[in-house]
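Sat 14:20. Reprocessing the chain from the morning session after the first attempt stalled halfway. Input below, unchanged.
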Amino acid sequence: MIHKEGKKIISLTFIILAILNALLLILLPSSFLLKLVIIVLSFTLFFLFCLFFRKPARKFNPNDQLIYSPADGRIVAIEETREEEYFGDIRIQISVFMSIWNVHINWYPVSGKIIYYKYHPGNYLVARYPKSSVKNERNTIVIESRDAGKILVRQIAGAVARRIISNAHPDKMVNQGDELGFIRFGSRVDILLPPGIQLLVKPGDQVRGLVTPVAGIK
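Finished this time. Tokens:
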């Protein structure tokens, strides 16, 4: 399945490639090998766009005692950090870096009520760098859940990403596993959890949204 954020882009890409291929095949010398290379390259580019905007069908079993990864990718940091935007205290930060090959949908890691939402314009540093959490374009969402307390999720644009889509807004009730939003191309998602949370992942782990629990509630 193709995510709704990619349908217009993929349709436009198909039209442009079709026109360019038609013109090149007509104007270029009648070399079968050259024409074959053009067709293969065009098909590969179109396939990559479809791959990037894919929407996987995943079975999900909600569990209020677990906090799930909000994104596909690799854990690039687990650390104590002072969160200044909302909490003003020490939190456990788990950072998931999404490469261009990952699914770029984001999901809510817990159920609850959105009590804070803010969009921040910013730079486009490489998303795996620590400073991207406060320097890059980003969305900050705080969810108050019954069992886990207040959980902060931060969508961060990367060096290639130029658009963050979020369906969050204050006072919205959300369910664990619902779609939070989408980030185009390489990017990152941070989760900030209360101290003393039971961590279930470590730096370097590959995680999948809706599949991999990153923390458990004691």
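The first strand starts at residue 66 and ends at 68.
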